[in-house]
Write a structure and sequence with these properties.
The protein is an alpha+beta fold. It has two helices and four strands; from the N terminus they run βαβαββ. It has a four-stranded antiparallel beta sheet with strand order 2-1-4-3, with helices on one face.
Length: 100
C-alpha cells in the first residue's frame, strides 16, 4: 500500500455564520497551516483530528490502494485530493497525496 501525506493548507472562518448559528465555544481546532501527517496502510495518523479524518478517510484509503483520478481529472496530480474538514464554521482544507 502507498503512504499518503496529509498537509494542512488553510483554514477559512465564517464569522457571520458563527454569530448567527453557533453557541460560543472556547476551543475548536488544534490544526495549524503547514502541519503534516503520514498515513500508512490507509490508517488515521496519530495526532490527526478525528473529525477531519472522517472527511478525508475515503480518499486516503483509495490513494493508499493506488486508486486516484477522483471525479475524472479533478486534480492536476491524479494521485491527490484537496479535502476540507466538516466544520461548517471554520473548515480547514487539507491536501492529500501519495508519497510512495
Amino acid at each position: 500500500m502507498n503512504k499518503v501525506r496529509i498537509t494542512a493548507i488553510r483554514q477559512t472562518v465564517y464569522e457571520d455564520l458563527m454569530a448567527q448559528y453557533e453557541n460560543p465555544i472556547e476551543h475548536t481546532c488544534d490544526v495549524s497551516a503547514g502541519e503534516q501527517w503520514v498515513s500508512a496502510n490507509g490508517k488515521r495518523p496519530e495526532g490527526m483530528c478525528p473529525s477531519a479524518w472522517e472527511s478525508m478517510r475515503p480518499f486516503v484509503e483509495s490513494l493508499a490502494k493506488g486508486e486516484g483520478n477522483f471525479f475524472d481529472g479533478w486534480m492536476k496530480n491524479p494521485m491527490s485530493a484537496m479535502i476540507s474538514c466538516n466544520d461548517g464554521f471554520r473548515p480547514f482544507s487539507f491536501y492529500i497525496e501519495v508519497i510512495e
